[in-house]
Design goal:
The protein is an alpha+beta fold. The chain folds into 5 domains: 128 residues, MutS, DNA mismatch repair protein, domain I (3-Layer(aba) Sandwich); 91 residues, Orthogonal Bundle (DNA polymerase, domain 1); 102 residues, Dna Ligase, domain 1; 36 residues, no CATH class; 94 residues, no CATH class. Helices cover 31% and strands 27% of the residues. Strands 8-2-7-6-12-11-13-10 form an 8-stranded mixed beta sheet. The chain has a 6-stranded antiparallel barrel with strand order 16-17-18-19-20-21. A 3-stranded mixed beta sheet has the order 4-3-5. α5 packs across α6 and α13 packs antiparallel against α14. The chain is elongated. The N and C termini lie far apart (60 Å).
Length: 530
């Protein structure tokens, strides 16, 4: 890929964002740290699936998401490398340092991607295009790493532009995004649904009403809708935290010089920061990491995260950063190693530069910290490593018409973004919610007082009042109360998946209560009320 940029337009100076992106970074990091030649067929795997591949491997058909065996069948000479976020972050530190030599206020989005405000370097170098070219050239000379820069109104559009080396003119971001496929949102479930509805581009998605998207697709889709329309990727107002949220530790008697010792110190400091934030009902989104050496040298880096930084996430980023400072990883293609601290670290400081309200979130089953929680997390990660990410899932509430639809299962470790809509979901059952949703509906029979089967007409009228319910081969039980029907006509745009049904709530003489559904003349029990 070319490291240069080409301008789409330039209508004037406004608040702009620049993103630097290093292609195939996990592969490049494996070459920098472990010496795996990135010019060959290389694939980086996590949980037995490809997360990154070299250009040679992609030419042989290796793609992200493939299982290891399928990737090796497509490319017999494939070199497989385990995914290591710490390695990626350690190798990326010299790149960030090189960018900081040219601009101020660099934020690490993730290893291989960093962002900064475009206005400063654009004014200094005489425009966004010359600034981008100078920064890309400097990174190549200092680190031997190929990179691309994208500039646009907002981080989301700038990140997409970086993959093509584009400078999107001020005010042209909406037009730039309009023709992009919906896959650019990186939300596979939403993407699949939109494509089934015939919505294939960001422009078509952005053309939908904001309220309709929120009501029908949920909160996460509403955020994606904002991105598709060129809005800020952070609709929640990030505020400056009060100064007493900063945590620090002095190590004057025993300076931090080894990475393993520094990692332990990072863990302890991360737990203190997380506990302090929790005391204020806050969570961190941008983390400032500062260090002072015994010779007075000051080191500083800002890490940015799209979600909320947990204790483990804070500790990981601090550990990665300390590893990058202390290890002195040789830069790819460079004759010298990056500047290391002149002495051991005697002071470490963490300060959340961006926080959000974190109220109303229920603590985990094992609490916030402690040995039990860590042991559980390690067990989950090990299971996922053996059986795949879908083997351990977490239930997240969302929108839907039936109780089964209102819960989605997210792989353990992924962002648990709630998708519950602000407004009632159209066709949703009234309260109360059932206590038990059956994994497979039970066959049932509903009859009236004369013993005849009860049905629902095309006008949604009950043929007779339900009087008795029989579940499976059990005895009939008298129905003492019922409500409904609530009709559902789903996926009408996909004939193979379309279904129509009517739902009823019934209370029986024995004190039990059930959620029933009638579809194609067959009654079934979907859920049980407490």
């Amino acid at each position: 890929m070319s490291g240069g940029v080409r301008a789409v337009g330039d209508d004037g100076a406004v608040a702009r964002t620049a993103v630097l992106w290093c292609p195939d970074w996990p592969v490049i990091a494996a070459e920098i740290v472990d010496g795996v030649p990135a010019t060959g067929a290389v694939a980086v795997l996590h949980a037995n699936r490809v997360v990154a591949a070299s250009e040679v491997a992609r030419a042989d058909g290796v793609r992200r998401g493939l299982r290891k065996r399928e990737a090796q069948s497509r490319c017999p000479g494939l070199v497989v490398v385990d995914h290591d976020p710490a390695r990626d972050a350690r190798a990326f530190e010299p790149v960030v340092a090189a960018v900081e030599e040219m601009v101020a206020g660099v934020e690490v989005v993730r290893p291989g991607v960093c962002g900064f405000a475009a206005r400063g370097p654009a004014r200094y170098f005489g425009g966004e295009e010359p600034a981008a070219e100078r920064i890309v050239e400097h990174v190549a000379q200092a680190c031997g790493v190929e990179s691309q820069i994208g500039v646009a109104d907002g981080g989301f559009a700038a990140g997409l532009a970086a993959r093509e080396g584009l400078i999107v003119g001020s005010g042209e971001t909406v037009a730039f995004l309009a023709g992009r496929p919906v896959e650019a949102l990186a939300r596979p479930t939403l993407t699949e649904l939109l494509r089934r509805l015939g919505i294939t581009t960001l422009g078509a998605f952005a053309g939908l009403g904001r309220g309709d998207v929120l009501a029908r697709f949920g909160f996460d889709a509403a955020l994606a809708h904002r991105l598709a329309g060129g809005g800020d990727e952070r609709p929640l107002a990030v505020r400056r935290p009060p100064p007493d949220l900063e945590v620090s530790e002095d190590y004057g008697d025993d300076p931090l010089e080894r990475v393993d010792v520094a990692a332990f110190a990072a863990r302890m400091l991360a737990e203190r920061l997380h506990e302090r934030l929790a005391g204020y009902g806050l969570a961190c989104t941008r983390l400032s990491i500062g260090a002072v050496t015994a010779h007075g040298q000051e080191l500083h880096r800002v890490w940015r995260h799209d979600g909320l930084l947990t204790t483990a996430a804070i500790a990981d980023r601090v550990r990665w950063q300390l590893d990058g400072w202390l290890s002195g990883t040789t830069r790819r293609g460079a004759r010298t190693a990056p500047a290391r601290p002149t002495a051991g670290i005697i002071r470490l400081r963490l300060m959340p530069e961006g926080v959000l309200p974190h109220a109303g979130l229920q603590p985990g089953l094992w609490g916030e910290t402690g040995e039990e929680k860590e042991r559980a997390h390690r067990s989950f990660n090990r299971i996922q490593g053996i059986l795949g990410p879908e083997s351990v899932v977490t239930a997240v509430l969302g929108g839907g018409r039936s109780p089964a639809d209102q819960v989605r299962l997210v792989p353990w470790g992924d962002e648990l973004t709630p998708t519950r809509p602000a407004a009632p979901w159209p066709g949703r059952l009234p309260s109360p919610a059932p206590a038990l949703v059956l994994p497979a509906p039970l066959p049932a029979t509903v009859r009236d007082a004369a013993g005849e089967p009860v049905g629902v007409s095309a006008r949604l009228l009950v043929t007779a009042a339900p009087a008795h319910l029989t579940i499976g081969s059990g005895p009939p039980v008298e129905i003492v109360g019922w409500a409904g029907p609530w009709p559902v006509d789903e996926r009408w745009w996909a004939p193979a998946e379309a279904r129509r049904r009517a739902r009823f709530q019934v209370a029986l003489a024995d004190g039990s209560a059930f959620l029933l559904s009638l579809a194609a003349g067959q009654w079934s029990v979907e859920a049980i009320y407490d």
